[in-house]
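Continuing from the previous page of notes. For each protein in this section, the sequence appears first, followed by its structure tokens. Read the first protein now.
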Amino acid sequence: MADIFKQKQYRVVRIEKEEDMNIYDFSVPMVGGGALSLAENKGKVMLIVNTATGCGFTPQYEDLEKLYEEYHEKGLEIIDIPCNQFAGQTPGTDEEIHEFCTLTYNTKFPQMKKSDVNGENALPLYAFLKEQKGFNGFGHSPKGLAMAAMCLTRDVNYKKNPDIKWNFTKFLVDRDGNVVERFEPTADMQDVAKKVAELI
């Protein structure tokens, strides 16, 4: 009986700790070792995005770089987290991914180590992000409808869970550390840019 009470007590404490956590409690593994503590970005706007090098949305790297060049000096940080969980569209090493992005899109924002965003090996950061902003649909554009149809073939209940559905899902964090917006990959990058500009 005492053991059961201890287990219940532990669960309560653990839940309270998770609820008290904020974006600055998390870190992201960096290429070559070490980790980027998001606390280093306190007071800045962050756009956190899981990326891929061989995806139909990969050209969004160009839009992300434009955002970075326009707003980085004003306080924008882009957290680029390559991920190979969606149709294996990021098969390369961290070095190969970096080389592709810098040569193809001239990216200057830092890339993190390739990591999972769903499942048991997902970065703890992503559990937090998905809790803050769940999935809210792909919209009604042709790409949005195509993505919805694809997800439906994989999971008839895909709308009910907050998991990342595909490459280039973006979470926007304001200067106070609040997760204010989740953009699915089908979102118009002009809408993303507009929201970033509002926060800057």
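Done with the first. The second protein uses the same format. Note its length before scrolling.
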Amino acid sequence: MSYDVASVRGQYVSLGDGWTYLNAHARPQIPETVSAAVSRSFRLAGCVADAESSSGSHSKQQTAGRLEADSLLASARIAVADLCGSSPERVVLGSSLPSLYMSLSQAMRPLLRHNSSVVLSRLDSPELNYPLEGLSAEVRWAQPDLGTGMLPSSQYTELVDGSTRLVSLSAAQSLLGTVAPVAEIVDYSRSRSRAWVLVEASAYAAYRPLAADQWDADIVALDLAALGGPQLGALVFRDSAMFRRLDQIREAPVAPGLAGGVPAMVGHLAGLSETIGTRRTRLQRSMGELDGYLKSLTDELYFLLGGLSSVHILGVSGEAGDGGAGDRVPRLSFAVRGVPAETVHQRLIDNGLVTTILPASQLFSEMGVDEVGGAVTASLAPFNTRYDIEHLTRVVASLA
């Protein structure tokens, strides 16, 4: 079954404004079904839920007078569980991913000893690393390959030992697109310690089928807004028995109206292609087709944009780059030699292309971004087409 991008584009009303959106890494477009679900949920959250009159074995058991808000939160947990291949009792919702990381760091205190260590990754977002740096433990850093932006798994044999209580990393770097060898890192960590492995999977789950048990990670973290959903975060634990080893995780209050958009978001991802079965089955098949479609577009993007002699794609171009051979999701950051990033970004905006300027950071400076005047980040979404890539390449070529 082929991926029908025209049908997918019809599910995003915002695409009718004439802009070409290549900024899924920063502000994904919201499907109409999600925005409609959030609007409806805010209206109904304070209402009393309808109780089923049936008493059959498959009927919902509801407490009389129960508000819709409770049902909305429960449905959101079920939807996140379907997305990850988990169960709803293992899902913790929060108002944002940073707030959940802060709550997790506080709840992990019973696991720490005076000589404990945690292993973090330089590729991860500073706002997610910050709460974990505050743990009463030695912080060790996993370093990326500065030429490719990849995260070598072999270094974890030295970073992880018997004192390690937590290993945290991202499954995919949100601005470079590089995919981490999560399963290998989990294996290394398991063989050398009893540490929990926390995997931030938002950039990965936006493009590929997600099955947490394939990684065998202890906790999977998701920014639901990064998937085109409401501004909420979620932590999905491998086993509900893990909660007994923690202090209670304090959930920041979650607006039920926002939670009402989560099932719609997961349903949208499950419906990107025509397939049948349970929501989990449809998700796996639909995201598999999306992955295949976007991989072909990404190959075209590297070929067309990377073919411009003045363009340097971080991690791909140059002698130290891998030429695009590494595992990546469809996100990249590029520079035009001799042209400041602000100028490149403005030329793209003037031609109807929405991208972002790569933020300043120590990592990107070490990768040589400052030397070329900064870089611009572009990323694909389920609705992008080959025309969008060609349009981007033509505009960038005009600066060469």
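What the second structure shows: Confidence is low (pLDDT under 50) at residues 54-60. Residues 182 and 201 are 10 Å apart (CA to CA). We return to this in next week's lecture.
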